[in-house]
Write a structure and sequence with these properties.
- There is one protein chain.
- The protein contains two helices and eight strands.
- The chain has 136 residues and is α+β, with helices and mostly antiparallel strands.
- The protein has one domain (5-67, 75-135): 2,3-Dihydroxybiphenyl 1,2-Dioxygenase, domain 1.
- A hairpin with a 5-residue loop joins strand 7 and strand 8 (128-135).
- The longest helix has 11 residues, at 19-29.
- The two termini are 27 Å apart.
Length: 136
């Protein structure tokens, strides 16, 4: 059994071909307010209730790492984030290692609750998962 419980989905990151068009859709059509702009990564963080939707320009530094732009046969999801509690970096890394899962050391990332530590790993199909701790 894991040594933490999932509290909620923190955020979803979508790679988009036209950042302005996507921001307009999510803000005007779905009512998601812009929470933060991250120019360094060509990323816009949008509020989605208690969670967030992050839009990343496929031509930007973060979006370009995902390969070609999303299409019907291509992948669009960069990663999804699960807010976990408690967040004990050492215990989580040891748990993942015991399960045969490679993971990164915790890094500071922005999420629905603010800046906090996150650990990244992959599921068996290669989908990236972020395990996020509380805001600091």
């Amino acid at each position: 059994m894991p040594i933490f419980q999932i509290k909620h989905l923190d955020h979803v990151v979508l790679r988009v071909q036209d950042l302005a068009r996507s921001v307009e859709f999510y803000t005007k059509v779905l009512g998601c307010p812009v929470k933060k702009k991250n120019e360094k990564y060509a990323m816009i963080h949008l509020g989605a209730g208690g969670s967030m939707i992050d839009l990343v320009d496929v031509q930007g530094p973060l979006g370009a790492t995902g390969g070609k732009a999303p299409e019907k046969e291509g992948h669009n999801l960069d990663h999804f984030c699960l807010r976990v509690d408690p967040f004990d970096e050492t215990a989580i890394l040891e748990h993942l290692q015991a399960c045969g899962i490679a993971a990164s050391k915790a890094v500071m990332r922005y999420g629905a609750e603010g800046d906090g530590l996150s650990i990244y790993c992959f599921d068996p199909d290669g989908n990236q998962i972020e395990l996020k701790g509380p805001a600091m």
